[in-house]
UniProtKB/TrEMBL annotation:
Gene3D superfamilies: P-loop containing nucleotide triphosphate hydrolases
Protein name per UniProt: Adenosylcobinamide kinase
Top EC class of this enzyme: transferase
Pathway annotation from the record: Cofactor biosynthesis; adenosylcobalamin biosynthesis; adenosylcobalamin from cob(II)yrinate a,c-diamide: step 5/7; Cofactor biosynthesis; adenosylcobalamin biosynthesis; adenosylcobalamin from cob(II)yrinate a,c-diamide: step 6/7
EC number(s) on file: 2.7.1.156, 2.7.7.62
Positions annotated to bind GTP: 9-16, 34-36, 51-54, 62, 85
Family statement: Belongs to the CobU/CobP family.
InterPro entries: CobU/CobP, P-loop_NTPase
Its job: Catalyzes ATP-dependent phosphorylation of adenosylcobinamide and addition of GMP to adenosylcobinamide phosphate.
Gene Ontology biological process terms in this record: cobalamin biosynthetic process
Reaction catalysed by this enzyme: adenosylcob(III)inamide phosphate + GTP + H(+) = adenosylcob(III)inamide-GDP + diphosphate; adenosylcob(III)inamide + ATP = adenosylcob(III)inamide phosphate + ADP + H(+); adenosylcob(III)inamide + GTP = adenosylcob(III)inamide phosphate + GDP + H(+)
Active site: H50 (gmp-histidine intermediate)
MF (Gene Ontology): adenosylcobinamide kinase activity; ATP binding; cobinamide phosphate guanylyltransferase activity; GTP binding
Length: 186
């Protein structure tokens, strides 16, 4: 069975660079799942730089949901290792897809969105295990900063934090990056 590796840390802590380095050692056929959406010039530039940093022989799948359909994607099927970068962008995209007014929505509506996030994460783990893939997840550590002063920030932090805890519990290895230095914590 493939193994799960989780890499977490703050913004610009070196998570992606370390994830790419560790992924190179886990298999010969790598598929990268990019969850970012190029919604502005800054994000377009980040995506471009991420693409340039990856080995050209890696295949890329651009998606942040519908992971249960990966068994129909040749890039997933032929990979022995899948690197998803990043979980927190995936959470953001699913939150935005909901169309909710986060200042006025009910906790039940928020719970439904969180259920959708967990459905996607668990679906990816399940299909990766069915096909014996290694999975490397990149995520932002969201619990070390200030409490966000607005409701959407709190909702995002809470959902992302619970997803990170779940992934850490499922992972065989967990790394925390600080200033470009990875530390193995599990």
């Amino acid at each position: 069975m493939g193994k799960i590796i989780l890499i977490t840390g703050g913004a610009r802590s070196g998570k992606s660079k370390f994830a790419e380095k560790i992924t190179k050692g886990t298999g010969n056929k790598i598929t990268y799942i990019a969850t970012a959406i190029p919604f502005d010039e800054g994000m377009k530039d980040r995506i471009k730089k991420h693409k340039e940093s990856r080995p050209q022989e890696w295949n890329t799948i651009e998606k942040y949901k519908d992971f249960k359909k990966l068994d129909k994607d040749e890039n997933f099927i032929k990979a022995d290792t899948v690197l998803l970068d990043c979980i927190t962008l995936m959470v953001t995209n699913i939150l935005m897809d909901s169309g909710l007014d986060f200042d006025k929505c009910s906790m039940e509506e928020i719970d439904k969105v969180e259920d959708e996030v967990f459905y996607e994460v668990k679906g990816l783990i399940k299909i990766a295990r069915e096909y014996n893939k290694n999975l490397v997840f990149v995520t932002n550590e969201v619990g070390m900063g200030l409490v966000p002063p607005y409701r959407f920030g709190n909702i995002f932090r809470d959902i992302a934090g619970r997803v990170n805890q779940y992934l850490a519990s499922e992972a065989e290895e967990v790394y925390f990056t600080v200033s470009g230095i990875p530390m193995k914590i599990k």
